[in-house]
Amino acid sequence: MAERLISPPFDTINGLPVTSESPRPRDGGFSIARDGSPITPELRAEYKEQAHLLVTPSEPETGVPLLYHPKGASKDVHLFPDDDHHPEHPSTHSLLVGYGAPAALRHSRTQHINYWLHHNDGHGTFRGPELPTTSEGYFQRIVYNAAGFIPEMAICFKEPGSYTLMPLSTDERLQLWNKKIVHIERPAAVHSYLKQYLFDQKLTTVRERDIDHFMHTTDPTERWKKAKNILDAAALEATDGMGETYKRFFDRLLLPPTNTWRVAKFVVSRLANHEGQKAVLSKELQSTLRTRYA
Description:
Elements: E1 3-4, E2 12-13, E3 16-17, E4 23-24, H1 41-51, E5 83-85, H2 101-107, E6 110-113, H3 115-122, H4 135-147, E7 153-159, E8 162-167, H5 170-178, E9 182-183, H6 187-199, H7 208-216, H8 220-238, H9 243-251, H10 263-271, H11 275-292
Antiparallel strand pairs: 1-4, 2-3, 5-6, 6-9, 7-8
Helix pairs in contact: 2-4, 2-6, 7-8, 8-10, 8-11
């Protein structure tokens, strides 16, 4: 069943009627044509064809897709409530449904923006960014998204199909963070992915006797202390090669100032930011290592 708009604040667009029965598109759909009139099947086909021509621009070092500039809509149309744009592809992409790294990538970032900017400008122009091609590539991009990395440049539209890039000021970037305009859509999905990725590391720098001590300790405080040592080692292994670039972005205020400049420390803190998570994570790590070293 098609999604429906709920009580739009106005009842016309350019003199044409819009009601609560007007369809609200899923990602990749449209409800308003470029001239403001209701979209026809012919125009929808035209938009979809065009959307496959352009790849969403990305930050070159990380592959993180550029955000839409808060002032970047081709029209200031507020007929519908703002909604969430997924910079990591529309939901129609076959890889980004279900579970695993691709789905975690999609859910690692949304941007709450103007409806027109999202559906008409954005989906009328781009088919989405290039997806990573390796497990390391997925991990690194999910980490940058989850950490709140915002590239220097953002996308502005002249009209659907025509865009330019404009720098985001420090104040604009702070607003995106502080007002949670850019945020993780499904923290649980990102948590599950990062946890499994760390659990899958080879742990080449961890001594067997340290693992053995961790496996047999029963004191909760000591268990977490030893678990954290193992997770720190796994995070350093997983983020190998990321540290210098991550710190440079932090120093340039492209990452939230409330964050840490150490990427490995961020990953572990994302997994265990309260006592309940620490206890569960310790037990899950014990179970994983027990299977590995059985």
